[in-house]
Amino acid sequence: MNRDNTAPTTDDADGRLVAASADGEDQAVEAALRPKSLDEFVGQERVREQLDLVLKAALARGATADHVLLSGSPGLGKTTLSMIIAAEMGAPIRITSGPAIQHAGDLAAILSSLQEGEVLFLDEIHRMSRPAEEMLYMAMEDFRVDVIVGKGPGATAIPLELPPFTLVGATTRAGLLPPPLRDRFGFTGHMEFYEPSELERVIHRSAQLLDVAIDTDGAAEIAGRSRGTPRIANRLLRRVRDYAQVKADGRITREIAVAALGVYEVDGRGLDRLDRAVLQALLKLFAGGPVGLSTLAVAVGEERETVEEVAEPFLVREGLLARTPRGRVATPAAWAHLGLVPPRQGSGGAGQPGLFGT
Ligand SMILES: Nc1ncnc2c1ncn2[C@@H]1O[C@H](COP(=O)(O)OP(=O)(O)OP(=O)(O)O)[C@@H](O)[C@H]1O
């Protein structure tokens, strides 16, 4: 395998234990934990089943598999799945990413060195430069690129034939892809967040590979705090393992997992210190809102972008916070989660009586 670029998306890789994007340690350990076949890949039943058909049909025809687009949040297994596609097809894989391809020439160099049937994994495909994107259209459709030689009026396009290859594009936001690019994929798989029971299976599998003893309740406890994301589940498992080794006999039980994740400030629902600070400010200082984003950010001493991009998406997904035209509002579940009682209707607070029936 060839990795041209290892830069992860860093939008929330700021050292948080519950960040969905990969940090350096993750990258080192992940290779060992990645499932190697579709059978080993946990969850994502629909994508797995559809992909299985696509790959088996291509194998039966003796052809290269259709181009595949995988969309979904960081850490849900897009890179893993691309490696599995290559393994199932018995093909080598080349890994690169949109931000690493700034010029069409960068892409031409990669494409022209591919072997027949090779899988090209292009992470963050929505961040590729425009000229490279246009070159990719032709490469995907006709297995051909025009290499421009020279500059200005004397420039000439030299057509270059490419061997058939399978492009696996990954994006966190399929909606950002221009339709001509989206349309050139024969198969699109949308990766969903994982159910806790699926994450439990991921955790048991990883524990076995890491040679860590863990019981059912211990795995369930970690799974429930992993925000639907295998990468976070694997990371929490490693931190709980550390705790179990230092403070106990190395075996992970529910009690150990609860104590360890308490030390790391990841609560029962997977919220960390920042998430809880935002909720606490919203509830305690603004009686549940509505309150403007900037005001909320000042109250927690963070940048507006940090609150909006790092903390809020998960709080919204969990149904703890709502973004409304009048500002941020806490839901009844937020009060319950922090063990607080919402103010009574018409009690004069900044709350918005009636919005959630509180
Ligand atoms: N379905 C799964 N079963 C078991 N482990 C998984 C699964 N999906 C992901 N993982 C594990 O989670 C980690 C992150 O997965 P991966 O790197 O494939 O995510 P990604 O979606 O490509 O993330 P990014 O968008 O940040 O590149 C890997 O260690 C992988 O082993």
Q: How are the strands of the largest sheet arranged?
A: 1-3-4-7-2-8
N-to-C series of helices and strands:
EHHEHEHEHEEEHEHHHHHHHEEH
Ligands: adenosine-5'-triphosphate
| Helix/strand/pairing category | alpha/beta
The first-level CATH class name of the largest domain: Alpha Beta
Low-confidence segments, given as residue ranges, are 1-13, 348-358
Number of domains: 3
Number of strands: 10
- The span between the termini is 56 Å
Which value, in Å, is the CA radius of gyration?
24 Å
Shape, please? globular
Which fold name fills CATH's third level, the topology of the largest domain?
Rossmann fold
Strand content: 5-15%
Give the helix proportion (percent range): 40-55%
Q: So how many helices?
A: 14
Binding site for ATP: 33-34, 75, 78-80, 141-143, 184, 194, 231
Family: Belongs to the RuvB family.
InterPro entries: AAA+_ATPase (IPR003593), AAA_lid_4 (IPR041445), DNA_helicase_Holl-junc_RuvB (IPR004605), P-loop_NTPase (IPR027417), RuvB-like_N (IPR008824), RuvB_wg_C (IPR008823), WH-like_DNA-bd_sf (IPR036388), WH_DNA-bd_sf (IPR036390)
Binding site for Mg(2+): 79
